[in-house]
Amino acid sequence: MGSVRWAFRYGSWTPTRSEWLYAARCIQREEKERIGQFVFARDAKSAMVGRLLLRKFVCERIAVPWSEIQLARSPRGKPYLVLPEATTTHTPPLSREAQRWSFNISHQGEYAVLAAEQGLQVGVDVMKTTMPGSSSVSQFFRIMTRQFTEYEWSVIQSSGSERQQLAAFYRHWALKESFIKAIGTGLGFNLQRAEFHLSPQPVTEEQGQHRTMMHLDEEEEHSWRFEECLLDADHHVAVALGLHSPPPAGPRCPSPPPPTAFTHLTFGDLIAQATPLSEEDPAYWDGFQSKGEAPQRQSSRAPSE
After folding, report:
1. How far apart are CA 249 and CA 271, in angstroms?
2. Which pLDDT score is estimated for 95?
3. pLDDT tens-digit readout, 174-206
4. What is the DSSP secondary-structure string of the chain?
5. Using CA atoms, how far apart are residues 18 and 16, in angstroms rounded to an integer?
């Protein structure tokens, strides 16, 4: 089975006029318009990179020509590929292997990430460990009390310093979000239903880990596997991988495959196989330059994308 893990640091990306206008030419018209409506430049950049990541993946791994890619959103906002046979193009139908790919993206902090897998449900979430902007750590935790179980809070609050507690908080948060994004439930899912039991092995920039377990409705869940890694000291990524059907009866595999490492991409990588879909729109650059700087944000339920 195939695996893809990509990351792009949009927070430090300062697009030139030519880069921004070319990127806008390489995405669908409705997405270009949506991105143009963002108030803050950071949000516009993250959304643009997310679209380019998706199109790059579909073009390179599912082998749909860039100009033929049609992405749509589920009612809950999760992106999906409109299969060629459902369009008016002359692209051949996808092979069975190509249709077995599942993919998901996330953007938060400084990064946008994409995770994809053949034959498994996939959800990905990236979270940046940040100090609360307008409240103390204890006050922030009180606001978020209902999002975690009593056991999870005991783990978070016994992690050491305030910074270490926040890192544990965002680690749990990324795990929960990766799961609900994989199942496509969105905001209606009660996060306390999914309780995570972390592996004692630390997650580092050099070494990811895959031994964290989830209890769903108080029962240990064997149909799901979770990969975790750090993109840098502040950004934790969780990838949820689920079987499309329950596993066969019998003992659980004692040694799941190691987590797939994330590849850090450049803007050149994003557009390496891109094909412009529209004419250049100089006013789109003017609109981007007029956008403000985003304020510091605390954690919130992430988009289902």
Report:
1. 45
2. 73
3. 999 999 999 987 667 888 999 999 988 889 888
4. --EEEEEEEGGG----HHHHHHHHHTS-HHHHHHHHT-SBHHHHHHHHHHHHHHHHHHHHHS---GGG--EEE-TTS-EEEPPGGGSSS-PPPPPHHHHTEEEEEEEETTEEEEEEEESEEEEEEEEE----SSS-HHHHHHHTGGGS-HHHHHHHHTSSSHHHHHHHHHHHHHHHHHHHHHHT-GGGS-GGGEEEE--SSPP-SS--B---EEEETTEE-SSEEEEEEESSSSEEEEEEEEESSPPPSSPPPSSPPPPPPPEEPPHHHHTTT----S---HHHHHHHHT-BPPPP----PPP--
5. 5
pLDDT digits (tens, 9 = 90+) for 1-23: 689 999 999 999 999 999 999 99
CB proximity list for 198: less than 8 A, separation 6 or greater: 155, 171, 172, 212
Averaged pLDDT score across all residues of the chain: 89
Question: Residue 257: pLDDT above 80?
Answer: no
Number of residues that make up the chain: 305
| Structure confidence at residue 18 (pLDDT) | 98
Res. 251 pLDDT band, cuts 50 70 90? low
Give the bridge partners for 194, in sequence order. Answer: 216
9: tokens are 């640091």
Cα 227 to Cα 262: distance, rounded to the nearest angstrom: 11
Q: How many CB atoms lie within 10 A of CB 22?
A: 16
Between 23 and 209, whose confidence is greater? Answer: 23
Looking at residue 79, its pLDDT comes to: 83
Integer CA distances (angstroms), 124 to 68, 183, 242, 257, in order: 26, 11, 12, 18
CA 144 and chain centroid, separation: 21
Tokens of 99: 């249709």
